[in-house]
Amino acid sequence: MWLKNAQIYDSRSRRFRRGDIEVAGERIASLGGKAPAKAEAIDMDGAFLLPGFFDCHVHICVPTDAPDPSRLWVNALPGEIAIYAARAARRLLMCGITTAREVGGWDYHEIAVRESIGAGVIEGPRLYCAGRILTITSSTTPYYRGMYEEADGPEEVRKAARKQLAQGADLIKILATGAVTSTKYEKADAIQYRPEEIAAAVAIARDNLTHVAAHAHANEGIRNAVEAGCRSIEHGSFGDEATYRLMAERGTYLVPTLCTAAAMFRDPNFAGRVPPRFRQRYEKVHATRVTNMKLARRCDVRMAMGTDAGTPGNHCGDNMQELEVMVEEAGFPPAEAIHAATLGAADMMGLVGDLGSLEEGKIADVIATATDPLKNIAALRQVGLVMKGGRIHKQNGIPLPFV
Predict the structure, then answer these.
(1) Tell me: the pLDDT tens digits for 158-208?
(2) Are residues 148 and 61 in the same domain?
(3) With CB atoms 3.0 to 4.6 Å apart as the test, which of 19, 144, 190, 268 could cross-link to 178 if both were Cys?
(4) Cβ of 279: how many Cβ atoms within 10 Å?
(5) Residues 129, 46: one domain?
(6) What is the count of structural domains for the chain?
(7) Cβ–Cβ contacts within 10 Å for residue 26, how many?
(8) Which of 289, 128, 106 is closest to 213 using CA atoms?
(9) What pTM was computed for the model?
């Protein structure tokens, strides 16, 4: 099958060039040539083709229409959470996310969804799951009973990390600092896991040929995670120049999750129902985070796109909003934002040999927009074609039947 008459994104030059793509099975067979006259083909009518996008920070089990995160899944029925997660995964795919890193699920329902996607039972992106998030004894654990795994001290951390892997986790997620969406007793700029505890999680991950993603807002917590060998820093809100330069030196990735405040405040009625403590924290941290992402970029920190979909109002299916905030508020050129969501993210996840760019021999994950996202990043909010592994899931803006 061919996708012909298209503008094809070259991830190396970060430009589009006209050509056709041949897909054979799940891979790209040839690229840039011209489809034979009688070949099975879809005329793209000049559409702009890009590699399938990554979202490296999602929570598909968390109901984003709930304004109060302190009462998630209270009295949930058996199966309700898994059904919600499956629907969220499908929304990810339909907006152009063909690969996602799930960094905190709920009682492993997300892993069941991952397995069902892999078996072809339901639609969704490739999911790489962390299982439960490793945390110190925390006042916020009651908010996230199915998401947090309390473990204090290196030995408990090792045991908890092994438990996630035994449940099918692909990576380990830790809380190096406090969180924004937390109780009044927890501060985002406070340290949680100590260096020796983080190192224990990293050692177990390395033993099992995987990596650690570290939630870290506070500068010292970021530095602790970088020095311990975590692959990525999630959020990275309060870093300073020295810490960001250390990240650049070590090759540690930053997953900024800049869109959380924009998502919460988009609907004033919804925002008005969010408890004041959370609204005020999101407002306060957003300005700091945007300023510091500009600094991190100047320090040449590697970036991978992540939305934190799962925070209030931050819905799966609207993930491309993150790139708009990166471009319009944090000053990223569109090509840099796209790189963070494609080749950069694939590199962070060790998948660059198969994914992240449109090249011969790579897996045929392809999305299309009608207009040029290098000129208007908002074009990515209207993805007309979604192909994952050579199979078309959405065409002309319409989801196709899935059997």
Answers:
(1) 999 999 999 999 999 999 999 999 999 999 999 999 999 999 999 999 999
(2) yes
(3) 190
(4) 18
(5) no
(6) 2
(7) 15
(8) 128
(9) 0.96
